[in-house]
Amino acid sequence: MPTNLRILARLIAVSSCLVAAMAAAADFRPPATPLVACDPYFSIWSAADKLTDADTVHWTGKPHPLAARVRIDGTAYRVMGTAPADVPAMEQTGLRVLPTRTIYTFQSAGVVLTLTFLTPALPDDLDLLAQPITYVTCEFRSVDGASHNVQLNFEASGLLAVNTPQQLVLGTVEEHGDLIAAKIGSQEQAVLAKRGDDIRIDWGYFYLAAAKGDGVRCSLQAAEASLEQTIDVPAAAESVVASVTLDFGKVANEPVSRWLLLAYDDLYSIQYMKKNLRPYWRRNGWEASDLLRAAAAAYPSVVERCTAFDQELMADLTAAGGEQYALLAALAYRQCFAAGKFVADDNGQPLQFCKENHSNGCIGTSDVFYPMAPQFLLLGPTLSKSFLVPFMNYAASERWTFPFAPHDLGQYPHANGQRYGGGETSEENQMPVEESGNLLLLMAAIAQMEGHADFAGLYWPQLTQWAEYLKAKGFDPENQLCTDDFAGHLAHNVNLSAKAICGLGAFAKLCEMRGEQAQAAQYRQTAQAFAARWVQEADDGHHFRLAFDRPGTWSQKYNLVWDRLLGLNLFPASVLRKEMEHYKKVQNEYGLPLDNRQTYTKLDWILWTATLTQDRADFQALVAPVFKFLHETPDRVPMTDWYFTDSGRRRGFTARPVVGGVFLQMLYDRQMWAKYAGREKIQAADWAPMPRPPRTVTLVPTSQQTPALWRYTTEPPAENWHAADFDDSAWQQGPGGFGSAGTPGAVIGTTWKSADIWIRRTFELQQPLPDRAALRLHHDEDAQVYLNGIEVLSRGGYTTEYEAEEIDAQSLRAGKNVIAIHCRQTMGGQYIDAGLDAIVPDKR
């Protein structure tokens, strides 16, 4: 097709997209709808047009079933979930997703039901924002002039408390003040034992609660057993259901409303440098009962406050970018917060750790919280600093030895040090320009918000070092990764160069705010000189290139947003206009590709790029195809940020916090920014130093370096096989570890290919025995570990390397000791090996 015709076809597609999206705004169909959106583990979604068309799922797509049925004058209807299939669905008549609420409406048999899921994500009240709770309000009214008898039954599966369906759970029904609650938790309670991406919580306790009163019944059920108040015999999670039944009595013209509460107490939320941190809401000694009682007491005011907040924010979003933009941002709002967790440091100050959902599960990733940041920046300094403090403390520690910023803090929920690329050991697959620029820009944004650079001053040596790095290597980046690492390495990256230039300008701004005028002038002059060169060397006629050395290429220059937002004035407006005109010509039906190499894009970057000219028509021209994508994509998952612009299919990534980037448009309005940012109450400061991990000293080595001899059998042994005095002389003897070739991280001494293996090893310990001890274990999959006949650890799933986990040191003895392990293989690779460490304080 000739170029002119191709451009015309694209313009026609975009125009039709604008018209269609405007019409669709009234009945926007999210790809998936947030129901419970609290943190990466307590995150439940409906992936269908109607709440009865599909069972609810965790953001990973694994089953997290919630179900609800109503009876109207004795006739049953489903309002949530697909079962029982022989019960008809109540007709769903509406759905609206607002920043803190998801509202469904139904109508059948002369009765209207409004079902509202409210997660109180109020940014000016961090105590409330950090609470892992969601209210479900059920309001019935008659619309046919008659009175109707109405009951509602709400159920939650035991799967909400485990990682895999076969894990065992226990449960009980409890009273907490004016509430009655069904409580479910795993038998194992392996607190913070697992890390990774596609995992769900299997420690702590889920609660389904309701206000006590006539017509309220709360119960538990395991498999086909009768309703009970306690499940004290462990049962498979998939067979356990918590339920609450509410009798609304006679419902007439006046609405009758009752509410339920879903809550999750995870006990400890994040491991930061080997220290387990409490969730923020627990910082003052609260227990689950305190959370539930407070949530019940606050319900009326929370509903009122969230309703007012939603109305105000939606109005401001609409004024800033139009109705489609407001609907898109509302869908992003809870997803952004729910992809991270607020915890308390040793001084009770808030730290936020975001999770890199649906990629590698990294925690506190710079090039994830960089696009996430606009939502946090809009809502105040404390929220913005909360995710930077743990990252900057790590960067300032002796562990980080490179002249550029780190990439991440570990793998969720373990923030124990960078895992991506070369980690702490090499420059392989690092993102030096990307991450250094990110931090300089975000620090300048906080300084602009506060009117001073005191926060940046806490980390001035690091920021200065990174500015010097960008000065030396930022203008024409070497072959390296950037945040769009899925596209591979790229040298001479023009958009990355723009980030470095704006980063240098941001550092000059910080210097000026600190009164360092000479330094400010030096860095400003460097940034200005680089910007002038950039305009000349990246120019490709009607647009600017993807890479300096690649004519005929183009890319989104989303990093240029900071030039206007921070008042740097490094690039002429003509650069932005020229780019925008090109973007409007080359975008596809569902959005603007990331660059000329592929048709896929990043949703967050389109929403940044759309703001470049601050022209409303330009903004809406780029946002409308994104809105159409969300409305039409066949991939029913929480908002993705990586998709194909020609087909509307998801390329990857789900439920990530980067969608907070859609709020960037709001930051251009200084008055609007000041209004929201000025509402925060706590003004956090005096954060605790980064925890110093304890040191470990080997007591009993693993087979990682030198194979150790074990007794083993693959035949089921006698019942007392783990006892210290068990005679294992008939068992085979072989060197550890035990497993199959190709298992990640395995050091095979003896091949093991059967379903089960039992291993034993004897060792001697001398006085004094350690006060604290850790088992160093590599297991694939399920392992039960005994010391001297006492079970000290039980872990499901698998690890990919040796990991130390503290155990009860009281199980150790002076003299002879026996460690006994049973490992069960279920799928994929298989491996088992263990050693023992003493945990000693790090007195450095």
In a nutshell, what does this entry contain?
By secondary structure, the chain is an alpha+beta fold. It contains 17 helices and 39 strands.
Account of the protein in words:
The protein is an alpha+beta fold. It is 28% helix and 27% strand. The protein has 17 helices and 39 strands. A nine-stranded antiparallel sheet has the order 6-7-8-9-17-13-12-11-15. Strands 28, 31, 32, 34, 37 and 39 form a six-stranded mixed sheet that branches. It has a six-stranded antiparallel sheet with strand order 30-29-33-38-35-36, with no helix packed on it. A hairpin with a 5-residue loop joins strand 1 (33-37) and strand 2. Helix 5 runs parallel beside helix 7 (432-450). The N and C termini lie far apart (69 Å). Residues 1-25 have low confidence and may be disordered.
Keywords:
disordered N terminus, 6-stranded mixed β-sheet, alpha+beta, 844 residues, 39 strands, 9-stranded antiparallel β-sheet
Global morphology:
globular
Radius of gyration over all CA atoms, rounded: 28 Å
Low-confidence stretches: 1-25
Number of E-type strands: 39
Strand content: 25-35%
Specify the biggest β-sheet: 9 strands, antiparallel
Q: How far apart are the termini?
A: 69 Å
Widest beta sheet: strand line-up: 6-7-8-9-17-13-12-11-15
Global mean pLDDT = 95
Q: Roughly how much helix do the residues carry, as a percent range?
A: 25-40%
Structural class by sheet pairing and helices: alpha+beta
* Count of helical stretches: 17
